[in-house]
Amino acid sequence: MSERTFAARTIPVARAGNEGLSSRPLIQAVDVGRRRGPGGDWIIQQMNLAIEPGERLALVGPTGVGKTVLLRAIALLDRVETGSILWRGQKVHGDLVPIYRADVIYLHQRPMLEEPTVADALEAPFRLAAHRGKALDRTRAAALLERLG
Questions:
Q1: Is the pTM of this model over 0.90?
Q2: What is the arithmetic mean of pLDDT over 85-110?
Q3: Are 42 and 18 in contact (CB under 8 A)?
Q4: 103: CB partners within 8 A, 6+ apart
Q5: Most CB contacts within 10 A, which of 15, 16, 72, 128?
Q6: CA-to-CA distance for 9 and 31, rounded, in angstroms?
Q7: Separation between Cα atoms, residue 29 and residue 71, nearest integer Å
Q8: What b/e sequence results for 57-92 when a residue is b if at least 16 CB atoms lie within 10 Å of its CB, and e otherwise?
Q9: CB of 49 closer than 8 Å to CB of 55
């Protein structure tokens, strides 16, 4: 890995319960490119990445090589200048964006809670229109938090 590149590494996970998932990538970045401002140097260029259902992925590399830029592009928080983001084989645009954003998030490596309590933070997504009619399963949330220690 050179000083200006990063690598994507698959993290092995138990696949139990994922047998019925599609064999095509869940999310793809296809020839994605982004510049540092209009006409600036390329931060990422011709980036291709496929994430399979149930897969966990780590982007590894030094500071400033574009890892965050790629992740923010995949989450549709920043525009891409070239290429496309595909979800379940479809280009993500228009009416599909809110549905996509209900399934895909960007979580910064040093997250800051904007809510006063952890419980409030866990309930916050359920106030979004994309999750209308859904509610936080407090028992499941407590069990997951217990596993995290």
A1: no
A2: 86
A3: no
A4: 87
A5: 72
A6: 19
A7: 10
A8: eeeebeeebbbbbbbbbbbbeeebeebebbbeeeeb
A9: no
Q: CB of 35 within 8 A of CB of 29?
A: no
- Nearest-Å Rg of the Cα atoms of the chain is 17
State which amino acid sits at residue 8.
A
Closest CA to 87 of 71, 103, 66, 72: 103
29-59 confidence digits (pLDDT tens): 999 999 988 888 998 899 898 988 888 788 8
- Contact partners, residue 29, CB within 8 Å, separation at least 6: 47, 48, 49, 70, 73, 74, 83, 84, 85, 86
Q: What three-state secondary structure class fits 10?
A: strand
* Residue with token string 């084989």: 89
Residue 116 has pLDDT above 90, yes or no: no
Say what the pLDDT of residue 22 is. 55
Amino acid letter, 112: M
